[in-house]
């Protein structure tokens, strides 16, 4: 079965930037996902490779062109992975959608009236609706991309610094304000567990998650030890 390549944009839109006025319904918008087209290519190449393997098994000899077909399949799979990674960018270059002014013009030029009249799946908006004055290039200019990348990375670094400071200063304040052994142990357990979950979300390697969580736990354990021994060796209050 051929996957659906077109998705209608007939309902979900931003009224402030939509092409229609307050009293007029906006025209339908459409979306083409090149990643879905690549999946079709993957399935086609997969069938060719399976056919080659079945032929070699049945006839006891190499099928003509099986190495090239396998190489094409691997390359197509790598291209699909690249498409998936680019989908995380600010604007997916493998998605032609009606929210973008130039994309909407291209879609309008090549989609027939009969196709536009079909009942298609409604998809959510991927961003603000562009106008003739706010339209952007498909991948952005070099200067805009550099400035946007710097700003995005700066915001990420600020967020990381804020979260890191919260995980360090937060439990210390709790341990000082509630200078009880149980409060310190509970605070350490909760914050170490939360920190480990955050690391598991953002880190891809198991050893990195374990090392960062163990290092953070060591910092809190040292602070608990210094807090409980601050009374000249007297046992801490429970």
From TrEMBL:
Keywords: Membrane, Transmembrane, Transmembrane helix. Pfam families: DUF6594 (PF20237). Residues 136-221 form the DUF6594 domain. It comes from the Eukaryota. Coiled coil: none annotated. The chain crosses the membrane at residues 158-176, 182-202, 209-228. This is DUF6594 domain-containing protein. The lineage of its organism: Eukaryota, Fungi, Dikarya, Ascomycota, Pezizomycotina.
């Amino acid at each position: 079965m051929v996957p659906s390549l077109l998705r209608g944009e007939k309902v979900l839109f931003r009224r402030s930037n939509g092409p229609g006025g307050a009293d007029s319904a906006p025209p339908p918008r459409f979306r083409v996902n090149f990643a879905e087209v690549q999946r079709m290519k993957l399935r086609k190449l997969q069938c060719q490779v399976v056919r080659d393997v079945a032929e070699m098994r049945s006839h006891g000899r190499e099928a003509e062109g099986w190495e090239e077909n396998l190489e094409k399949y691997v390359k197509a799979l790598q291209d699909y992975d690249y498409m998936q990674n680019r989908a995380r960018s600010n604007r997916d270059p493998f998605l032609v959608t009606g929210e973008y002014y130039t994309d909407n013009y291209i879609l309008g030029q090549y989609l027939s009236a009969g196709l536009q009249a079909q009942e298609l799946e409604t998809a959510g908006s991927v961003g603000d609706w562009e106008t003739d004055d706010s339209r952007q290039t498909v991948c952005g200019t070099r200067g805009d991309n550099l400035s946007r990348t710097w700003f995005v990375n700066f915001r990420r670094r600020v967020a990381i610094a804020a979260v890191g400071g919260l995980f360090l200063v937060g439990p210390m304040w709790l341990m000082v304000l509630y200078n009880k052994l149980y409060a310190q142990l509970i605070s350490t357990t909760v914050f170490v567990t939360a920190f480990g979950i955050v690391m598991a979300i953002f880190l891809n390697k198991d050893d990195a998650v374990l090392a960062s969580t163990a290092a953070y736990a060591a910092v809190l354990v040292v602070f608990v030890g210094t807090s409980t021994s601050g009374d000249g060796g007297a046992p801490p209050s429970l």
